[in-house]
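[Structure tokenization] protein backbone as discrete codes

[Encoding] learned vocabulary of local backbone shapes

[Begin record] amino acids and matching fold tokens:

___
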Amino acid sequence: MEGRRFGNRPSFGGPREMHKATCSDCGTETEVPFKPIEGRPVYCRDCYQKHKNDRPARPGFRDNRSSDGDSEEQ
């Protein structure tokens, strides 16, 4: 899997180590590029797409989305 890309980002350092997991929504067996942590949900590719906008904003990251769709200029 040399040169494999994830989204628009290249995978630096060669192939990524994948870990087997079970999707928390649909129960499908999947593989993820991180070690799953007990008590935290893991989603397959399809279910992740459904949930990715449900996540709270990370502290220190600027969120350009607002409830009315306008971004505030500073």
In short: The CA atoms of residues 2 and 14 lie 6 Å apart. The beta strands are 5-6, 9-10, 19-22, 29-32.
